[in-house]
Design brief:
The complex is a heterodimer of chains A (249) and B (327).
Chain A (H helix, E strand, L loop, with lengths): L3 E10 L2 E11 L4 E5 L6 H9 L6 E6 L2 E2 L5 H7 L1 E3 L12 H9 L14 H14 L16 H13 L5 E5 L7 H12 L6 E5 L3 H7 L2 E6 L2 E6 L1 H6 L1 H14 L1
Parallel strand pairs in A: 3-8, 3-9, 6-7, 7-8
Antiparallel strand pairs in A: 1-2, 1-4, 4-5, 9-10
Helix pairs in contact in A: 3-4, 3-5
Chain B lengths: L1 H6 L1 H12 L6 H26 L7 H19 L4 H23 L4 H21 L11 E2 L14 H24 L1 H11 L1 H6 L4 H27 L1 E2 L6 H14 L6 H19 L4 H18 L6 H19 L1
Antiparallel strand pairs in B: 1-2
Helix pairs in contact in B: 2-7, 3-7, 3-8, 3-10, 3-11, 3-12, 4-5, 4-6, 4-10, 5-10, 7-8, 7-10, 8-10, 11-12, 12-13
Classes of the chains: A alpha/beta (249), B mainly alpha (327).
Chain lengths: 249, 327
């Protein structure tokens, strides 16, 4: 049984098909890169997987269960986590508070300041601060006081704190150097072989080196689903996405 | 234990000063301080929803009114005198009213949420005006409310009333601080900052917002009951939209989303209202209105916690940091 099954998923906004009849499956531990020109439907499909948008038709199955209509907060508890663009960090919460919100899976409704489970959460937060190199000022910094790279690390620390079965990464490389990108990949790899990753990116070198498989979206449709070497040779992909720029390279 | 006591020293000192105040004030000043503390509690209660959870309610005076009317009517119509029963009933009634408020208003977002809370507040105010059961006198108010029976002999006068209110408000503020500092309080702030991310982290945002409004409204109900005991009456003007607007003003002036800002703002605005009216009864609304406008402009340029102590504190802190760096 596949970890994730996308079966004929479509999403329409009025008469516009943002995503149309997309199907694919994914195995545990697999890394899938999603590419396509702007408006290709990548973000909509990403939001359908994350539960922020419901499909108009079709089914999404995760771990054998139909999650097509499942809310995003329930998806988190079933093992799906996602990252966002940096602008969606909590602007007025400290790094430590960000990580505490992410790490506290129990006693979230406690109205008592010090719960006995808090020590466990504190340890998990300290561990994340160390592991993701976010311990400056003991985690008391606000996102605006951090470097761009540190904000990206915080973003990924939050997304990976629950050790999800499926991790959705929304353009994890934006604004980062090649070294920082590779560093992020290694940190996500450290989660373990069981974590499957789907990521959206525009950097072809990164997509080629990170992915086991690549999905190519165009005008809402999945036009190619293959391993990186096959994608590089795919004429249609070359024309609609890689285009002249790739040919020039 | 000792460290906890030392950390709490400022709070203990404030409570001690509050209990000592009757020895330094005349009865009119005692009454003013009592009223200011009650409104400080009301503003701090509103701030659980307003500052912590980002729910900009314009109907919280109605929730305080539910507490005040419940305690007042039980005392005047049914001769219930026990403080514990009256306050228990006020808390329960305002909790139920808050839940109803939340279930209706949280169907809407942002501006529409504000409008729905405003409409709900106006409905409660109209109900208080129209329903005869909610009037015990020609003044169209519940009158004849007195200080309740605590279960032991207590000679009520402005001094003992102030001391009693200091104790109740201190306990209520500890409860509010507990909520703010708890995992639940952090979740409230998370829903304020980023709803989509909170959902993606497994938090059911709508439920947390209901909880924030319920906690906030319930504490407001307690303040409403104290207001009724202290004032001796409660009327539709105490629960109307204008009263809710003043509560919001208190929160913003003190600094929404801060630990004690709203409480301090409540005290400041109450003093301002009193001294403005004392100086010139006709010009008092003009002064308060000007304050409203200045506050609105400050919100325009500093959206949250614009005015008040937080901004002053931040400015002082920054100056100190700058001096430190320069050195």
């Amino acid at each position: 049984m596949s970890l994730l099954e996308i079966d004929a998923v479509s999403r329409r906004y009025g008469g516009v098909h943002a995503v149309e009849d997309v199907s694919f499956t994914m195995e545990p531990g697999e890394w899938i890169g999603m590419i396509g020109p702007n408006g290709a439907g990548k973000s909509t499909l990403f939001n359908i997987l994350g539960g922020q948008v419901a499909p108009s038709s079709g089914h999404v199955r995760f771990d054998g269960a139909d999650i097509s209509r499942m809310s995003s907060h329930r998806r988190f508890h079933s093992g799906i986590s996602r990252s966002f663009q940096i602008s969606s960090l909590f602007p007025e919460l400290t790094v430590r508070e960000h990580l505490t919100l992410a790490c506290r899976t129990k006693h979230r409704w406690s109205a008592v300041r010090r719960w006995r489970g808090d020590a466990e959460v504190d340890r998990a937060v300290d561990d994340l601060l160390d592991r993701w190199d976010l311990g400056r000022a003991d985690g008391r910094e606000l996102p605006a006081q951090m470097s761009y790279g540190a904000q990206r690390r915080l973003e990924l620390a939050i997304a990976t704190s629950s050790r999800p079965k499926l991790l959705l990464l929304d353009e994890p490389n934006v604004g980062l150097t090649r070294e920082e990108c590779n560093d992020l990949r290694d940190r996500v790899h450290d989660l373990g072989q069981g974590t499957a990753v789907i990521f959206v990116a525009h950097d072809m070198d990164m997509v080629m080196s990170w992915s086991h498989r690549i999905l190519v979206m165009h005008q809402g449709r999945l036009v190619a689903d293959d391993d990186p070497s096959a994608i590089m040779k795919n004429k249609f992909v070359e024309e609609v996405y890689l285009g002249a720029e790739h040919v020039a390279v | 234990m000792m460290r906890t006591v030392i950390r709490r020293l400022p709070v203990i000192a404030v409570i001690a000063i509050g209990l000592w105040l009757p020895y330094a004030l005349d009865s009119q000043q005692e009454s003013l301080v009592t009223r200011a503390l009650i409104f400080g509690l009301m503003a701090a209660s509103l701030d659980i929803a307003y500052g912590q959870a980002g729910l900009y309610s314009l109907g919280h005076a109605a929730l305080a009114g539910v507490g005040g009317y419940t305690a007042g009517l039980l005392m005047v119509r049914y001769d219930v005198q026990s403080f514990w029963i009256l306050v228990g009933a006020a808390l329960a009634a305002s909790a139920v009213a808050s839940l109803i408020f939340a279930l209706i208003s949280l169907r809407a977002r942002v501006l529409y949420f504000i409008l729905v809370t405003l409409a709900l507040g106006q409905m409660v105010s109209n109900l208080a005006q129209q329903w005869d059961f909610l009037k015990t006198s020609q003044a169209e108010a519940v009158t004849g409310i007195v200080m309740p029976d605590l279960g032991f002999t207590m000679a009520w006068n402005p001094a003992t009333t102030l001391q009693f209110v200091v104790v109740v408000v201190a306990v209520a503020m500890i409860v509010i601080q507990r909520i703010i500092g708890s995992p639940l309080g952090l979740a409230f702030r998370g829903t304020r900052e980023n709803e989509v991310r909170m959902e993606a982290l497994g938090y059911h945002v709508w439920r947390y917002r209901v909880a924030a409004l319920a906690a906030s409204g319930t504490m407001c109900g307690l303040a409403g009951a104290l207001f009724a005991f202290h004032s001796g009456l409660i009327s539709p003007t105490n629960v109307g939209v204008a009263a809710s607007g003043v509560l919001v003003l208190m929160v913003i002036i003190g600094g929404s989303g801060t630990r004690y800002g709203a409480f301090v703002g409540g005290i400041l605005v109450t003093f301002l209202q009193f001294y403005a009216a004392d100086w010139s009864l006709e010009r008092a609304p003009l002064i308060i209105g000007t304050l409203f406008i200045v506050t609105a402009l400050l919100i325009r340029f500093r959206p949250r916690a614009a005015a008040g102590f937080k901004a002053v504190f931040d400015a002082v802190t920054r100056r100190k940091q700058a001096a430190h760096v320069a050195a």
